[in-house]
Structures are given as structure tokens and as C-alpha cells.
Design a protein that fits this description.
By secondary structure, the chain is mainly α. 54% of the residues lie in helices and 7% in strands. It has 14 helices and 3 strands. A 3-stranded antiparallel beta sheet has the order 1-2-3.
Length: 342
């Protein structure tokens, strides 16, 4: 009897275990499907929020961009603006400028987003421009180390720029997250503050997608950001001096300085003041292009430094662009240096 009872119980036990195993598998499948659906729903929520009617099609938004804390926001460059020719020109000018400044460090920047986010290039650039050494680690691989370096660099930058009226349009998080608009804002401010010898394209604006989270709901908007205005307006951030007063009261009498705009007179003047002949092959006697004129003015600046003058604060491009105040500063420095010469 016992043998028979045992034998009859075996199929029932096996069936029970089979049912439990099936239910377990079914339960696991349901759980996985539920989790998968939650992720899918979250992804769909982000897509729906981003693909609002107010936004342009083709906006490159990633699902993680929608995972924001309450009251937080994320800013992304509109793809149409990324293809804007003036914006591309601005990026090229900034990249060429950085590479020129950091040539001795053997640093080559090809992409502002990929090459500036970790703070290494920004550190070297600020140190070169300011002549100030920052107390940061030279190489940092971890995210924490990179953000610490960025924090030190940006604190130094902000401390320098704020007194001159610059609006701080960048942060550690925006730079480290490769926000191209924030990176460009920062580089333009540094270039203008240190009077970089470059010609920034004027009136460059881009559109950005701003995603905010308010009361658990994602809100989106398209905002226009002005990256550059006119050279005069950007340079106007700096303090006014006696030259500004002179320009205010006698602008019509200062057209004579335009004769120095192509650099020819400046070069010949330096030869007269220093009593030497400047070989004609060193400059363009009848410059035709903007680049040739910049070459002449830059060459004249080199002759001034060779003569013991400090490096002019004006940029060659400013003189060529008929910036009266910049030209007056150059001429005034020449006058004060040579006024007692025989």
C-alpha cells in the first residue's frame, strides 16, 4: 500500500512543481514586461514633451534629457542653428584662436564640445591669457576631478570678468555636459576681455531648446541667444577713458586716423622714428585685402615692441576696422615714447 501511495503521489507532486515553475516563469515575465513598459512609458513621455508643436522637427533630444529634478532645466542647441554659417564661422575663429594661443603646449583643439568640457584646455587657455598659474591637477580622468578643475577655472574666470559687466552664461555643469552655447559664451567673453587678435563675426545668434520641469510636468520653449553683437558694443564693456571723451566731443575731427588703417603709414612711421629703412618685402605697400592690412598693422606692432614699447592693447583688426579709439591709443603711445627724441 505504501509503495502504491508513493507512486500515486509522484505524478501529483511533479504536476504541482510544474505548475509552480510555470507560474514563476509567468510572474517573472510579467514583471519584466511591466518594467519594460515603465521604461517605454517614460521614454514616450519625454518624446511627447520634446516634440511639442512649438519645437522644430529634428531636435536632437535624448531620453536622459527629460529625467530632470523638480525646477531643473536643460538647454540644447537647435539643429538648425548648428548649421548656421555665421555660427560655424564663429566656432572656426574660436578654435583657430585657441590653437594659436596654445601652440607651445602642443594642444590642438578640433571640437569645442569634446575638447573643452573636462577643463584641461580652458585651464591652459586662461593661464596663458592671464599669466596666472592655477592650482589644479594637470590630468584628471574622473568626472569628480574634471568638475573640480572646472570649478577652479571658472571661479578665476568669473572673478575676472564680473567687474567688467559680463553676464555669466556658463557653469560647471553646463560646460561639463558639453553645452556648446555655454562654451561659446565663455570663449567669446575671454577673447573680448583679453583683446584677442581675432575678428569675431558680428550679430551671431542661435536658438536653443529649453526644457524645464515644473510640478512634475516638462515644459519646453525655443529661446534665441545672442552670442556676439558688434565689436564696438562688446568692447564697450570696458571702462571709459580720456579717448572716449575725446571721441564724444570731436568725432568729426578724427577722420585723419583712418589713414593709418591699412598699416602702411604705421610701418613707415616706425622706420622714421627708429631711423632705419624697412624693406618693402616685409609688408604690403598697397594692401588690397583685409588680411594684408592686418599683416601690416601687426608688423608695425612688432616694430614697436622691438623699439622698446609695450605690446599695444589694441588689436590689429581694430585698427583695420577703423576703430578710432584703438588707433588713437596706438598713436598716443608712439607720441609719449618719442616726444623727447631729437
Amino acid at each position: 500500500m505504501s509503495g502504491t501511495g508513493t507512486a500515486s503521489a509522484t505524478p501529483h507532486s511533479a504536476k504541482t512543481r510544474k505548475d509552480e515553475s510555470f507560474l514563476g516563469k509567468l510572474g517573472g515575465t510579467l514583471v519584466r514586461k511591466k518594467k519594460s513598459k515603465e521604461v517605454s512609458d517614460l521614454h514616450e513621455e519625454g518624446k511627447n514633451a520634446i516634440n511639442a508643436p512649438m519645437l522644430p522637427t529634428g531636435t536632437d533630444i535624448h531620453p536622459e534629457d527629460t529625467l530632470l529634478e523638480e525646477n531643473a532645466e536643460r538647454i540644447m542647441l537647435d539643429p538648425t542653428s548648428r548649421e548656421n554659417l555665421k555660427f560655424k564661422d564663429l566656432l572656426k575663429v574660436l578654435i583657430d584662436w585657441i590653437n594659436s594661443e596654445l601652440e607651445e603646449d602642443r594642444i590642438i583643439v578640433k571640437d569645442l564640445e569634446e575638447d573643452c568640457y573636462d577643463g584641461q584646455v580652458l585651464q591652459k587657455l586662461f593661464e596663458k591669457l592671464s599669466g596666472r598659474k592655477l592650482n589644479v591637477a594637470e590630468v584628471t580622468q574622473s568626472e569628480i576631478g574634471q568638475k573640480q578643475k572646472l570649478q577652479t577655472v571658472l571661479e578665476a574666470v568669473n572673478e575676472l570678468l564680473r567687474p567688467h559687466g559680463w553676464t555669466i552664461e556658463w557653469s560647471v555643469d553646463s560646460i561639463h555636459s558639453k553645452n556648446l552655447v555655454a562654451i561659446v559664451y565663455l570663449l567669446v567673453a575671454l577673447a573680448m576681455h583679453f583683446q584677442a587678435p581675432i575678428r569675431l563675426p558680428e550679430h551671431v545668434s542661435v536658438q536653443v531648446v529649453v526644457v524645464k520641469k515644473r510640478e512634475g510636468i516638462l515644459q519646453t520653449a525655443l529661446v534665441t541667444k545672442e552670442l556676439t553683437s558688434t565689436t564696438e558694443m562688446m568692447m564697450g564693456r570696458f571702462e571709459r577713458d580720456a579717448f572716449d571723451t575725446l571721441l564724444d566731443h570731436a568725432p568729426d575731427k578724427l577722420n585723419v586716423v583712418k589713414t593709418f588703417a591699412d598699416g602702411v603709414y604705421l610701418v613707415l612711421l616706425m622706420g622714421l622714428l627708429e631711423d632705419y629703412f624697412v624693406p618693402l618685402y616685409n609688408f604690403f605697400l598697397t594692401p588690397e585685402s583685409f588680411e594684408q592690412k592686418v599683416h601690416n598693422v601687426a608688423f608695425a606692432f612688432e616694430l614697436m615692441q622691438d623699439g622698446g614699447l609695450k605690446k599695444p592693447k589694441a588689436r590689429p583688426e581694430d585698427v583695420v576696422n577703423l576703430n578710432l579709439k584703438s588707433t588713437l591709443r596706438v598713436l598716443y603711445n608712439l607720441f609719449t615714447n618719442y616726444k623727447n627724441s631729437e
